[in-house]
Design a protein that fits this description.
This protein is of the alpha+beta class. Helix content is about 30%, strand content about 20%.
Amino acid sequence: MFDVIIVGGGPTGMMLASELRLQGVDVLVLEKEAELPPFVRSLGLHVRSIEVMDQRGLLERFLQNGKQYPIRGFFAGIDKPAPTGLDTAHGYVLGIPQTLTDRLLAEHAAEAGAEIRRGCAVVGLEQDDDGVTVHVGPEAATPLRARFVVGCDGGRSTVRKLLGVGFPGEPSRIDTLLGEMEATASADDIAEVTAEVRKTEKRFGIGPSGRPGVFRAVVPAEGVAEDRSVPPTIEEFKQQLRRYAGTDFGVHSPRWLSRFGDATRQAERYRVARVFLAGDAAHVHPPLGGQGLNLGIQDSFNLGWKLAAAVGGWAPDDLLDSYESERHPVAADVLNNTRAQMQLTSDEPGPQAVRRLLAQLMDLNDVNRFLIEKITAISVRYDFGAGHALLGRRLRDVQLKNGRLFELMRTGGGLLLDRTGRLSVGGWADRVDHVADGSEELDVPAVLLRPDGHVAWVGDDQQTLEVALAKWFGAAGAATAG
């Protein structure tokens, strides 16, 4: 029996596999596709995902494969200068195509010891008190068993459907074509025309893909497809390019073609007993702001240590339920802001009037910063109850007297950062590191951080610290091997 079976080998699944392996959890990843997809649906990582990679020692390999871009105000494509006062030490967007993100996370999961089986489609699930039985395709004679299963298998999630979990929301009203192809027009001519079209149509774009002579194109589709799994043709692309730009730029020889919709849906539940949903299996939304891949990675960062705690035998009774109570509102907020952004891309007079007003409001630094912190997920605060302003928030990377905060989080355990030197983690030392250090950037006596970097306690009192330790890390001395 595996500890955890993850269904879906995209960024969400591979990030989760890596988090679990960090704690020694036995993990199997089942991916129905035999090869990594060529589609470049996401083009980068936002601040919070960059922080996540840094906290786990992965950032350097991402930086080597991507390009850093300064943060700017870009809500609904409204271009504004970067706001001042962003609460992060990583004030940039990392441009990196999803194909590279997929590969880097898959490589890391494999290096960490996760077993990855490609070409394995899950067709059935059955739960009992001891675990979950997973049926994989007609060719698999023997069902698989796991203590827990996580569906990271996308918006059309088989796991979600097998669980019977509702996926309410709004269906797609608008389709968009996406692809990579060659073009006979010059890059300069393409850029000039694109800049003019984007003055009125924010869902249009064509530019260099990073491969010599190959361009990435995105253009509104004609109508809504009955089946988005059927890719568009190059002729459809040419037709829509001519419609919006007056030219098809001589596009030819497509590398890949795809289409996506603007459906906005969220799973009614993220957990059914021993089975969980994460990433697009739990929520889908329009792509404005580039939040989808990032949201899934951050789901995994929240869930991974909690599942590991359950496997390790020290999880408090309500720890696994906190995954849904924390992440469901975050995704609901993303759905809300992407709905708003979609409305603001409309060429109708009403939405355009609101867009002009918002553009004026974004000249106010506080408004601009509020929107950017929302899209980059650095404003997320989980509800841990009343207390210090830092409670429930993640900490940015701060410089300590002896190194950086994020360097102390590479093990994936909890962390007590104690400038007083008087506190103790006692019977939780196997789950929480105690570092007697401080930072001029952090004006508090001590903070207790969960493995995902969110502040679980602030203060200098040993008794209240132990209450927080028990709440998030179980009873003292409760961990078991495996």
